[in-house]
Design goal:
This protein is an alpha/beta fold and 315 residues long. It has two domains: 200 residues, Rossmann fold; 87 residues, Uridine Diphospho-n-acetylenolpyruvylglucosamine Reductase, domain 3 (2-Layer Sandwich). It has eleven helices and ten strands. The radius of gyration is 24 Å and the shape is elongated. It starts with a strand and ends in a 10-residue tail after the last strand.
Length: 315
């Protein structure tokens, strides 16, 4: 198993836990042999010092380390997105070289709570409100896993202190000019004061939403086909409950335009769903954000790009 280690308290706690499991394992079954992966993004003056620190800890624990060098600052576009993309690609390369089936990363309860808050404020649907998954495919047969989602940051720090390891802090994690940095400084402390263990409770809520999302996706696949489908039989859709129709249309919209579902609420979706279910055979057109239109005729429901009304003879 590959474990991503940045040098922060969370990733060090994950590394310590896996190292302890390796040492204490008894009985049959495959052994857990962690291989640490450190990705040097070369974004901070202390980046090389962080890499040297991780190497020292891994040597102390007797864990093999592979260091990957990436340079997101040389790429056009969003720096954070580029760094994330290159980081996961690097972790996938380490997994391939180590012939590992899993890459473990140290996202914890507070990370999950931040993700849910951001999704809620963006107006995201079930996809966003289900938060980060405990596991997902990374590349090929390799899965990315997040075993610490139900654990708070303080527990990670406590484990490091018990092991006598002082972690390294990334100042960008608390940079108030970023969304997550502002949440960590000004919002999460208040939530933890009002509701102790709010992060772990949020992780549990995300699990419930994820289960609901999985059940809904099964229904949508049966009723609407794949997410890339853009035209449906109106009679078949009319037999469905309004919320299912709305969810299916939203899924198609999000597949057509990435991020288009943010802020698209029931006030947009339900009028279309109601038009699908009523008995009016007249063609009707509903213009949505991001240049998309839903057309409801007597026989079909179609999602498409905006077409000027005076060029569409049916409308």
């Amino acid at each position: 198993m590959v474990v991503g280690v940045s040098g922060g308290a969370d990733s060090l706690a994950l590394l310590l836990a896996l190292a302890a499991i390796r040492q204490r394992r008894r009985g049959p079954g495959p052994a857990i042999e962690p291989v640490a992966a450190h990705v040097n993004h070369h974004l901070r003056d202390s980046a090389d010092e962080d890499a040297a620190f991780v190497a020292e800890v891994c040597d102390r624990l007797g864990v093999t380390l592979q260091t990957q060098h990436v340079h997101p600052a040389r790429m056009p576009g969003n720096l954070a997105a580029n760094a994330r993309q290159l980081r996961y690609e690097a972790l996938g390369r380490v997994a391939a070289s180590a012939e590992a089936g899993y890459v473990a990363v140290a996202h914890h309860g507070e990370d999950q709570l931040e993700t849910l808050l951001i999704a809620l404020c963006r107006g995201a649907g079930l996809d966003g409100l289900s938060g980060m998954a405990w596991s997902r495919p990374l590349v090929g047969p390799v899965s990315l896993i997040r075993p610490l989602l139900g654990v708070g940051r303080s527990a990670c720090e406590d484990l490091c202190c018990t092991a006598g390891i002082q972690w390294r802090d990334d100042p960008t994690n608390v940079d108030p000019t970023t969304v997550r940095g502002r949440l960590r400084r000004d919002v999460l402390p208040v939530l933890e004061e009002l509701w102790p263990e709010a992060a772990s409770r949020a992780a549990g809520a995300a699990d419930v939403v994820q289960a609901a999302r999985t059940a809904l996706e099964h229904q949508l696949q049966e009723a609407f086909g794949g997410p890339s489908q853009r035209c449906w039989d109106r009679t078949q859709l009319a037999a469905l409950p309004l919320p299912i129709i709305a969810a299916g249309l939203r899924r198609a919209l999000m597949d057509e335009v990435d991020g288009a579902g943010d802020g698209l609420g029931q006030r947009h979706l339900l009028p279309v769903a109601e038009a699908i279910r009523d008995s009016d055979p007249r063609p009707r057109r509903f213009d949505w954000p991001r240049g998309l239109t839903v057309v409801v005729t007597s026989k079909q429901v179609q999602l498409r790009r905006h077409v000027p009304a005076d060029t569409d003879p049916r409308l």
